[in-house]
């Protein structure tokens, strides 16, 4: 901590902030996977345990303030594309998740993931960080009710007659003022004040009880392994490939973005990235056995980084809090989307600052960087944003006569992303 210029108090506060920002996954993941026919109670426990495993491994192996938990994009693809659209039983789909987890771990052991990440140009890494920032700000604006869907204009201003929207506005103003005045722990204080206001006004309901028993994982534990024999159709292997590639680049992009925000990058490389990727891989495998979709590094970790989290103690605190949450889950209901929305917006502002370092004056850099940044919020998918940038980069660099500056791996990724986009778009049909 001394080398990282931080303190125990700051790391604990950062861990608390990150945990509160991502605690929603404990309730959202069971909801989404429940639509696929899975037992919600079992998924709740599997979600918490996989988050504990991933966050503790990130703390011990990599010493980074980055939390890990089941990813939202992967669980949505699992339920709505694979199970519901393709008609594949969730048990068989979970077997696909298990196989992709094994392949994921092997890629990390041979350090292929590390090699790929180090081959990404610095400008694209900056664009990924900025794109993630704008993406999570968009998520915050949507979750807080400040913007809503519109058939005519795609998005529109939310209604100010909705009381909970004003709760988001209050949190955004208070947190913004505290940040401007450089008050330590501004983001966490803003969340606490917003929660208190919600409880006082009745916009947030008090929990009916405090302690609850931990649901059993029996309905989901080991189901993927038991149904490995179901993986025989080419279509199911395509599902395995998609899980593998999406998880690969979601986590890679998030790690790069968070490392840029925290100032960890050295000579365009992220120190100890191999250990960070190994933590992610092991937790993904563990989650597939327990009964949840692939885990990923969480962009909400940027909230803890923003208030000073710089070491593994931050993610260690997150892991401990996830363990406690298994007993005190009713208390987490007071942290609504209107409480976390201001955090995501503020953090999005902080992460977007990396755009100033991109070489915008060079069009061969500006085009792929821009497509990466806007692709994430406009497609509501981090992987798509990365794909747009990676597809454009080789083309613009070659056109500019800078072919020799392109890392050979970027050519490979060019064709990989073409295949990924093709499979994702034709698979549901």
TrEMBL record:
<dbReference type="InterPro" id="IPR026033">
    <property type="entry name" value="Azg-like_bact_archaea"/>
</dbReference>
<keyword id="KW-1003">Cell membrane</keyword>
<feature type="transmembrane region" description="Helical">
    <location>
        <begin position="12"/>
        <end position="29"/>
    </location>
</feature>
<keyword id="KW-0813">Transport</keyword>
<feature type="transmembrane region" description="Helical">
    <location>
        <begin position="124"/>
        <end position="148"/>
    </location>
</feature>
<protein>
    <submittedName>
        <fullName>Adenine adenosine cation symporter</fullName>
    </submittedName>
</protein>
<feature type="transmembrane region" description="Helical">
    <location>
        <begin position="331"/>
        <end position="353"/>
    </location>
</feature>
<feature type="transmembrane region" description="Helical">
    <location>
        <begin position="88"/>
        <end position="112"/>
    </location>
</feature>
<feature type="transmembrane region" description="Helical">
    <location>
        <begin position="160"/>
        <end position="180"/>
    </location>
</feature>
<feature type="transmembrane region" description="Helical">
    <location>
        <begin position="187"/>
        <end position="206"/>
    </location>
</feature>
<dbReference type="InterPro" id="IPR006043">
    <property type="entry name" value="NCS2"/>
</dbReference>
<dbReference type="InterPro" id="IPR045018">
    <property type="entry name" value="Azg-like"/>
</dbReference>
<dbReference type="GO" id="GO:0005886">
    <property type="term" value="C:plasma membrane"/>
</dbReference>
<keyword id="KW-1133">Transmembrane helix</keyword>
<feature type="transmembrane region" description="Helical">
    <location>
        <begin position="365"/>
        <end position="396"/>
    </location>
</feature>
<comment type="similarity">
    <text>Belongs to the nucleobase:cation symporter-2 (NCS2) (TC 2.A.40) family. Azg-like subfamily.</text>
</comment>
<feature type="transmembrane region" description="Helical">
    <location>
        <begin position="408"/>
        <end position="427"/>
    </location>
</feature>
<keyword id="KW-0812">Transmembrane</keyword>
<feature type="transmembrane region" description="Helical">
    <location>
        <begin position="41"/>
        <end position="68"/>
    </location>
</feature>
<dbReference type="GO" id="GO:0005345">
    <property type="term" value="F:purine nucleobase transmembrane transporter activity"/>
</dbReference>
<feature type="transmembrane region" description="Helical">
    <location>
        <begin position="236"/>
        <end position="256"/>
    </location>
</feature>
<feature type="transmembrane region" description="Helical">
    <location>
        <begin position="305"/>
        <end position="324"/>
    </location>
</feature>
<keyword id="KW-0472">Membrane</keyword>
<dbReference type="Pfam" id="PF00860">
    <property type="entry name" value="Xan_ur_permease"/>
</dbReference>
């Amino acid at each position: 901590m001394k080398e990282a210029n931080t303190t125990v108090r700051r790391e604990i506060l950062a861990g608390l902030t990150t945990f509160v920002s991502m605690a929603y996954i404990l309730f959202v993941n069971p909801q989404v996977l429940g639509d696929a026919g899975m037992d919600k109670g079992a998924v709740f426990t599997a979600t918490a345990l996989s988050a504990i495993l991933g966050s503790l491994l990130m703390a011990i192996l990599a010493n980074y303030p980055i939390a890990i938990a089941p990813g939202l994009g992967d669980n949505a693809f699992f339920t709505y594309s694979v199970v519901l659209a393709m008609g594949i039983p969730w048990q068989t789909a979970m077997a696909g998740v298990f196989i992709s987890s094994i392949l994921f771990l092997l890629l990390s052991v041979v350090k292929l993931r590390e090699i790929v990440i180090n081959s990404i140009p610095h400008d694209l890494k900056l664009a990924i960080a900025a794109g993630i920032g704008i993406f999570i700000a968009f998520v915050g604006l949507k979750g807080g009710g400040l913007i809503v869907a519109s058939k005519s204009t795609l998005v529109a201003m939310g209604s100010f007659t909705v009381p909970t929207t004003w709760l988001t506005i209050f949190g955004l103003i208070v947190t913004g003022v505290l940040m401007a005045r450089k008050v330590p722990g501004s983001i966490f204080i803003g969340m606490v004040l917003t929660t208190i206001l919600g409880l006082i006004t009745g916009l947030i309901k008090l929990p009916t009880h405090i302690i609850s028993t931990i649901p059993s994982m029996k309905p989901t534990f080991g189901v993927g392994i038991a149904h490995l024999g179901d993986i025989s159709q080419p279509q199911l292997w395509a599902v395995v490939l998609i899980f593998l590639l999406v998880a690969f680049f979601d986590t890679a992009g998030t790690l790069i973005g968070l490392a840029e925000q925290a100032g960890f990058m050295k000579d365009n490389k992220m120190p100890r990235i191999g250990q960070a990727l190994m933590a992610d891989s092991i937790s993904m495998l563990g989650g597939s056995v327990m009964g949840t979709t692939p885990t990923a590094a969480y962009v909400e970790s940027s909230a803890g980084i923003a208030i000073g989290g710089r070491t593994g103690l931050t993610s260690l605190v997150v892991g401990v809090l996830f363990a406690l949450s298994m007993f005190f889950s009713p208390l987490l209901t007071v942290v609504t989307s209107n409480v976390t929305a201001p955090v995501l917006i503020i953090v999005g502002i902080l992460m977007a600052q990396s755009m100033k370092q991109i070489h915008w004056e060079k069009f061969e850099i500006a085009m792929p960087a821009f497509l990466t940044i806007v692709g994430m919020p406009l497609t509501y998918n981090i992987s798509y944003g990365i794909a747009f940038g990676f597809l454009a980069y080789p083309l613009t660099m070659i056109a500019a006569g800078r072919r020799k500056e392109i890392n050979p791996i970027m050519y490979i990724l060019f064709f990989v992303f073409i295949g990924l986009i093709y499979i994702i778009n034709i698979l549901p049909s």
